[in-house]
Amino acid sequence: MMIDLEKISSKEDGEDTQWLPMSDLMSGLMMLFLFIAVSFILNTKRVAEKYDDNQQKIYQALQSEFQSNLTNWKAKIDKESLTFIFTDPEVLFQTGRADLQSKFKEILTAFFPRYMKVIDQYRDFISEVRIEGHTSSDWSRLVSADVAYFENMRLSQERTRSVLEYTYYLPEVENYRGWIKKNVSAVGLSSSKIVLNTDGSENREASKRVTFRIITNAEAQLRRLSELK
To answer: Under 8 Å CB-to-CB from 89, ≥6 apart: which residues?
Structure first.
């Protein structure tokens, strides 16, 4: 029996040529995926650096503007979250009430116009300002913890609405009202973010607070990038 080596060789060459395009395609896809991965990493790094830079600048501006008032107002500024925190519950509201106490109105009148001036300097880097209301987990002993949570949710929402409404109508911020409508929100968080003592127990007085939190554009971008991972 005669074996036609020429035909066998021709057949093998044909099979090889069929595999070459597939190999080239896989190599191209690998290079594409590598390029996308590197671009994603570089973009994330760039956004993170921008986030850190903006955080630092805004924090320094807030510190410079309000440093002399923090003690009298019993307030503090959290550097990591750009949150301005009013910590004295006795000044803010009466227990179970949502109307602003006169002392808190005085503080807000002195605070908010200056706060908006700082915001205005960095408005291109800020996507939102959240007025957040926090409560302790306490309510009536006659109700369950779940009922207490939702009652405190209602109360904290009413309180932040009162804060937003009062500050919005201050004559000194009239020029900022358009921006405030689009970018400032009032959020009631009930007892979802209580303050803890060193032993892990709830600090009920410290948990009752009102905060103004700045969310930068870079922070929002980082959140979106993390969702893509």
So the answer is: 205, 208, 209
- Tell whether 55 is covered by a domain: yes
* Residue 178 belongs to a domain: yes
- Angle subtended at Cα 185 by Cα 182 and Cα 189, rounded to the nearest 5 degrees: 165
For the chain, helix (H) and strand (E) counts, in that order, are 8, 5
Q: What is the domain-level CATH number for residue 141?
A: 3.30.1330.60
pLDDT averaged per 10 residues, the chain (length 229): 50 52 67 63 59 87 98 96 96 95 98 98 94 95 94 97 98 98 97 96 95 85 56
Residues whose CB is less than 8 angstroms from the CB of residue 91 and which lie 6 or more positions away in sequence, other chains included: 74, 101, 103, 104, 107
